[in-house]
């Protein structure tokens, strides 16, 4: 292939879509159904084509067209790990490569340029794709360029690296898929006829795995085009270049050693040379002379050459996964990408007609897959040959739902709804003309809360499964039952259950099922703050978010909550809790919010926020440490801050994990091994933290009064740059005060280290603790209670007392009436006869237990127990050990005397 000066990058432009046709339904009697209606299909198993020894099964959950020639299918993968069943969800876009109405292509960065990164969703939106998935591997601390080769819309953007076992996926302009290992072969010819080998196009620096040099850009010549945005070509090459600017195949400038300080112009390219290549420039090139380039790709398996001009698209990847319809041996070491992670892969069918874009979910609903499980899954869904793409935190799939104009996340990433910025991605594009109206569907949430109002719309799609404007229609809406009431296009949840919502326009209609979420559907009810000051006139923000059992987070509208105030009079309006007055001698108050019986609590107390450390006058040593044998280096010191904290001193933690292996830690250790004391019981912690976008884990380590080590998560992933304030609830961690804060640190776990930066700098400032005068165990009565099974008398702090129901043993579990425990150790219990629920309050804990149910709610979180409360002789008995230990009490059992001792 001959080189030319056209810019290499994405040819797709945002907003290049078709005009919409406005339709009416006059004379339309029947809407043709399509696969997928907004309601999951009945699951069915896919026939296994893998080894009979494989116990895994694959079940199809739903299927819907993305556009003509592309179908999105969601699968459930079920397998056995260490004797236990595990499930993962996977999403597959199957693209018909022989359908002229659809094509695959590669997107990269922002505005189609390398050295810029963008989320997959951002690239999809920018280029007008209808679906997309993240692409190639890249060095997270490098330039922002793919490791493998890339062809976009028939133009070579980047060449493969000289690495072993790295596969690429390509589609020819004739629609034939190719998965192979490729090398690059190129030549630059000077005007005098002398030639020099071309090492690559638009490459970041790396360590080649063949030849004798450890430096990719040493004694080498590379081409950089305007697709490479950065004026640095490339970073960290360990070489000083001489560069040649070529415009219209004529040399217009030759740089001094060090290269040019400008980006590549649109109408040219730059030859980047070093060593022997730079000497070639000196000997054979001059301004005004012409040069020519010639290059091709070579298959490492067949030796055949491939002209990139014959490709529609190509993207680099990692190891091969599937060959000839069976799991293959890995072509490259996969130890750094092991574990059960989110995964991305590409493959094609045996007849080479279909491409498979595969994304495995790792989130609250899915456990991820190992690479071997991914191989099994791909074979089972029909992949004949397939390869691995960048996975883990990079795995992102975006699609345009049927009838919609905008794309959305297909599933939550490992970071929730946050999409990681990557260097390139695979896009699916519609090439279809405007079609006629084929079908209608209802657009709106498939799940709403009680009291929540939601707007629904009628959408249309054409014969190519692309959106079509039906805004002129005026459908009538109705609900199949009283779970949901309808007013115009607005629906309101009334009670838990499922309703069928139907929109009718003339003789045409569309329906979808909408679920009204009840308390039994929740896993958590999170309130904006877990603690608040108990002071008349004080106001605190208390937005409430419901988390469903399938991981969906929904903001709870005010009308859906019932608030109860204990120890004070107050109100909640616009998500603000205001204390009107405090009851006499009350030290701790409670604001309890319930959604359909599911509770959460805000604990209010006479509190003060203590500025525990601002690093302005530190009188104790601060040292950098790491885990034994990890070879992590760095520093921890108090220094002048930057950015928002430029006028104060901060604790800066700098780390370098490049020489380390395994799980790596970088600690800022306070006051030697002793730590600094937190003397009063703290319910929450606030800390200003400067992030470095490394995606590493930020934590704090405490040692409590019982000698137990407590780890506090500050951020699961450091995904920000600059300063922000982090608030952490400590009330649920079981910390016995006084405690010591020993270390602030960054950890890089072993799985997925290729996705996280190994060098970086974070900083800390303004550490504060909220220390109520009475919370958790602090200030509550202490003592000892002794009870005996079958005996209604018991000892409380040495005094004999009686109760109206004796402790009993049922199926090996001891049950008691909890009231008598609370009489001694503080707290209260209330009984809700209508819901058969007992609520226990003590210190900073609210525990709801329901008769006959093993699940219970503790401070807004659903938890499971092995046993359930029951009623005997009109008295509710609760599991002794479960309740006592959750409330911070110690329980001892004496088998010989059937005696229970409870202490605090």
From TrEMBL:
It holds the Pfam family Cu_amine_oxidN1. PANTHER family: N-ACETYLGLUCOSAMINE-1-PHOSPHODIESTER ALPHA-N-ACETYLGLUCOSAMINIDASE (PTHR40446:SF2). This is Exopolysaccharide biosynthesis protein. Residues 796-902 form the Copper amine oxidase-like N-terminal domain. Residues 245-429 form the Phosphodiester glycosidase domain. Transmembrane segments: none annotated. It comes from Paenibacillus rhizosphaerae. The lineage of its organism: Bacteria, Bacillati, Bacillota, Bacilli, Bacillales.
């Amino acid at each position: 292939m001959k080189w030319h000066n056209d810019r290499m990058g994405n040819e797709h432009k945002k907003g290049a879509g078709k005009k919409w046709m406005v339709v009416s339904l006059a004379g339309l009697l029947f809407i043709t159904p399509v696969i997928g209606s907004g309601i999951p299909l009945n699951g069915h198993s896919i026939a296994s084509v893998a080894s009979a020894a494989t116990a895994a099964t694959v079940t199809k959950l739903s299927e819907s067209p993305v556009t003509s020639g592309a179908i999105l299918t969601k699968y459930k993968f079920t397998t056995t790990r260490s004797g236990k069943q595990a499930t993962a969800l996977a999403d597959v876009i199957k693209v018909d490569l022989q359908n002229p109405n659809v094509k695959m292509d590669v997107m990269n960065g922002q505005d189609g340029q390398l050295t810029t990164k963008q989320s997959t969703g951002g690239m999809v939106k920018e280029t007008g794709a209808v679906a997309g998935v993240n692409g190639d591997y890249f060095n997270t601390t490098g330039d922002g360029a793919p490791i493998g080769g890339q062809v976009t819309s028939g133009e070579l953007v980047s060449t493969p690296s000289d690495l072993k076992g790295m596969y690429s996926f390509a589609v020819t302009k004739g629609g034939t898929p190719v998965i192979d290992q490729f090398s690059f072969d190129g030549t630059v010819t000077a005007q005098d006829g002398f030639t020099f080998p071309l090492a690559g196009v638009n490459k970041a620096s790396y360590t080649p795995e063949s030849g004798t040099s450890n430096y990719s850009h040493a004694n080498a010549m590379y081409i950089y085009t305007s697709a490479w945005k950065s004026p640095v070509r490339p970073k960290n090459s360990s070489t000083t270049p001489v560069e040649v600017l070529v415009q219209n195949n004529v040399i217009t400038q030759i740089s001094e050693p060090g290269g040019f300080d400008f980006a590549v112009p649109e109408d040219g390219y730059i030859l980047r040379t070093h060593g022997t290549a730079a000497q070639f420039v000196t000997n054979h090139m001059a301004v005004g002379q012409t040069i020519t380039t010639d290059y091709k790709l070579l298959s490492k398996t067949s030796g055949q050459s491939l002209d990139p001009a014959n490709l529609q698209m190509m993207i680099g990847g990692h190891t091969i996964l599937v060959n000839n319809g069976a799991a293959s041996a890995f072509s490259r070491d996969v130890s750094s990408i092991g574990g059960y992670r989110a995964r991305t892969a590409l493959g094609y069918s045996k007849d080479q007609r279909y491409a498979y874009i595969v994304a495995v979910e790792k989130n609250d609903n899915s456990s991820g897959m190992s690479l071997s499980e991914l191989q099994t899954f791909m074979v089972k869904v029909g992949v004949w040959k397939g390869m691995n793409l960048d996975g883990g935190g990079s795995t992102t799939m975006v699609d345009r739902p049927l009838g919609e104009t905008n794309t959305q996340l297909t599933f939550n990433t490992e970071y929730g709804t946050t999409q990681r910025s990557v260097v390139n991605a695979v896009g699916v594009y519609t090439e279809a003309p405007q079609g006629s109206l084929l079908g209608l569907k209802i657009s709106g949430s498939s799940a709403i809360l009680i009291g929540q109002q939601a707007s629904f719309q009628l959408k249309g799609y054409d014969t190519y499964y692309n959106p079509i404007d039906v805004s002129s229609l005026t459908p009538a809406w109705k609900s199949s039952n009283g779970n949901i009431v309808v007013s115009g296009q607005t629906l309101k949840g009334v009670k838990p259950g499922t309703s069928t919502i139907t929109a009718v326009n003339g003789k045409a209609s569309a329906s979808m099922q909408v679920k009204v979420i009840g308390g039994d559907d929740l896993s958590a009810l999170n309130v904006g703050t877990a603690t608040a000051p108990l002071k008349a006139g004080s106001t605190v923000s208390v937005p409430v978010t419901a988390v469903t059992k399938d991981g969906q987070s929904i903001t709870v509208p005010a009308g859906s909550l019932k608030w109860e105030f204990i120890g004070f009079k107050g109100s909640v309006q616009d998500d603000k809790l205001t204390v009107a007055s405090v009851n006499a001698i009350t030290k701790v108050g409670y604001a309890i919010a319930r959604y359909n019986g599911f509770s959460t609590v805000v604990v209010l107390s006479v509190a003060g926020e203590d500025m525990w450390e601002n690093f302005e006058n530190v009188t104790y040593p601060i040292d950098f440490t790491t885990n034994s044998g990890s070879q992590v280096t760095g520093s921890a010191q108090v220094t002048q801050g930057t950015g928002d904290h430029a006028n104060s001193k901060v604790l800066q933690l700098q780390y370098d994990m490049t020489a380390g292996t395994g799980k790596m830690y970088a600690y800022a250790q306070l006051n030697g091994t002793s730590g600094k004391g937190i003397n009063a019981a703290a319910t929450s912690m606030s800390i200003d933290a400067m992030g470095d976008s490394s995606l590493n884990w930020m934590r704090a380590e405490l040692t409590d009064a019982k000698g137990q080590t407590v780890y506090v998560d500050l951020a699961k992933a450091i995904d920000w740059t600059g300063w922000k304030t982090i608030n952490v609830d400590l009330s649920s961690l079981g910390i016995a005060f006084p405690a010591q804060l020993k270390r602030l640190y960054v950890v890089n776990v072993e799985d997925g280290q290729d996705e996280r930066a190994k060098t970086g700098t974070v900083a800390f400032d303004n550490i504060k603790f909220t220390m109520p005068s009475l919370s958790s165990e602090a200030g509550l009565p202490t003592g000892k209670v002794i009870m005996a099974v079958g005996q209604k008398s018991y000892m409380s702090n040495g005094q004999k007392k009686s109760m109206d129901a004796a402790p009993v043993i049922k199926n090996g579990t001891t049950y008691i009436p909890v009231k008598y425990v609370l009489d001694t150790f503080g707290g209260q219990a209330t009984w809700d006869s209508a819901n058969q629920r007992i609520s226990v309050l003590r210190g900073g804990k609210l525990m709801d237990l329901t008769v006959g149910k093993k699940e219970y709610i503790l401070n807004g979180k659903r938890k499971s127990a092995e046993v359930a409360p029951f009623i005997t002789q009109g008295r509710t008995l609760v599991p002794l050990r479960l309740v006592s230990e959750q409330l911070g009490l110690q329980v001892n059992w004496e088998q010989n005397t059937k005696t229970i001792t409870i202490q605090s």
